[in-house]
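Q: Hi! First time doing this. I have a protein sequence and I read that you can turn it into a structure. Is that right? Here it is:
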Amino acid sequence: MKITILGSGTSGGVPMINCQCSVCRSVNPKNKRLRSSILIEVNGKRLLVDTTPDFRQQMLRYPVPRLDAVLYTHTHADHIMGLDDLRRFNYLQKETIPIYGNAATIAHLQTVFGYAIYQGGPIHPGVPHLLPQVLDGVQDIQGVEVIPIPLMHGQQEILGYRVGNFAYCTDVSEIQQSSYPLLENLDVLILEALRDKPHPNHLTLKQAVEQAKKINAKQTWFTHISHILDEDVQGKNLPVNMAFAYDGLQIEL
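A: Yes, that's right. Below is the predicted 3D structure, encoded as structure tokens:
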């Protein structure tokens, strides 16, 4: 299995528009962060997690020949608004693409992107052709066992995902007690760490480190990082088995 970090930034990306802070002006490429998304390649299949507003740019930067399914964590704009660009893969593959999420996410996507839901007929390049699927438990997706992990994002229940001994949990403010067993015995965990200051909908870096210690994966990478956190400052002072993720990072298991 190989995981590619397509984007490791928060909703505004890094650098932020019209910001002159040290991180936004940094020349370190690890401080340049597109909106958060990953690609999971396993058993010859490619599963995308979220279609950010940077999706087209991510696919040009880290090209793949096809996508077999898309998993959605939740419905915020920085995680869904690149959906329209899935149409290129539909046309190249000459087939529909299934999309997965919890019931609330799928209902929202069907409302916002109703034109993209496949209704039959030929595949053409003008619109996406997607098959929505509600994910409410462990499911075989294209021959890959995917375990949804319920998480809290403020007052909203969202999903993280586990495949094998890898888990991806972004936009987290709280991990329910019932979800910790789903995070046991991980080789790699990707977990959100937004900033230093408290936020009602996101883990701070300190909280993320505490959660990472509790989950005790062999390696933890932090993602959904704001321009408040600097790879050259906070990134250099993390525990030995923790680090900031960065765009283009490839993790092989």
